[in-house]
Specification:
Largest sheet: 7 strands, mixed
Helix content: 25-40%
Number of strands: 7
Structural class: alpha/beta
Distance between the termini: 28 Å
Shape: globular
Strand content: 5-15%
Number of helices: 5
Length: 186
């Protein structure tokens, strides 16, 4: 039975609100409504999200669609970028590029990629025994997990194609069984 790693969809960006408190936008909710078709299977009995509001919103939509409860796990959070907080899109993308390009370095005070990878791998590993779970989390840590599952170096080339994406993996063999796929049609 595969497990799934699902990222939250589009959010309401508000520079005055802490990033971890951003919720899903109307488009994000519409995209998340399609998650049951690709981020859940009959053997999935648990849905676990990070504690960030956008991931919780996504998990609630999925859980309601498939008739399950959801729980949260703080270690599934996105990379810690509290040192900068909100950054305008162009600046944010440049810092993300640097984050993936120099995984052993803290870029502008952000959590190092190697540390975030260790954290997400441990958290997912602890949650996927026996492998009956959909994890709802975030794109950057998803790319770091995917690199580990594939046994390849950290690279932005493994980043999700857009918010609201999913891949499947075999937790027992610890390998990815798919690449990223967009969820829904928002």
């Amino acid at each position: 039975m595969p497990s799934f790693f699902l990222t939250h969809a589009q959010v309401v960006v508000d520079p005055a609100v802490p990033i971890e408190s951003w919720g899903l936008s109307a488009d994000g909710r519409a995209r998340a409504a399609g998650a049951a078709a690709v981020a859940w299977g009959p053997g999935v009995r648990r849905i676990v999200s990070s504690t960030e509001q956008k991931a919780i919103d996504t998990a609630v939509i999925l859980a309601d669609a498939v008739g399950l409860a959801h729980s949260t796990e703080a270690a599934l959070g996105e990379i810690d970028r509290s040192a900068t907080g909100y950054l305008p899109p162009a600046e944010f993308e440049a810092v993300v590029d640097a984050f993936f390009a120099a995984p052993d370095d803290s870029v502008r005070g952000w959590e190092r990629a190697v540390d975030a990878q260790t954290r997400i791998v441990r958290a997912v590993g602890a949650l996927t025994d026996p492998g009956d779970v959909t994890i709802v989390s975030h794109g950057a840590v998803g790319a770091l997990l995917l690199a580990d599952l594939r046994g390849v170096p950290i690279s932005r080339a493994l980043d999700q194609p857009g918010m609201g994406s999913v891949f499947s993996f075999d937790p027992r063999a610890w390998r990815a069984t798919s690449g990223w796929e967009r969820v829904g049609a928002a």
